[in-house]
Amino acid sequence: MGDSHIDMSIRLRHPTERVCERCGRTEHWDADAESWQVATDSVGSIYCIHEWDINGSFVPFKTSA
């Protein structure tokens, strides 16, 4: 009886863009700066207490066989 082994790689993903649900400000993740950066065409307010569009639909772990 042989061993059957499935090699599955698990990769951690992260969001690359976020939008404030209150003011519409859009930011993107800058990997070089390791921080969120305001998009050049973004609207919104710097004084807003941002409520980012985090709703649980993003899946941070992805498996590949």
UniProtKB/TrEMBL annotation:
**Which segments constitute the HEWD domain?**
8-63
Q: Which InterPro entries match?
A: HEWD (IPR046782)
Give the protein name, as stated in the record. Answer: HEWD domain-containing protein
Source organism per UniProt: Halonotius pteroides
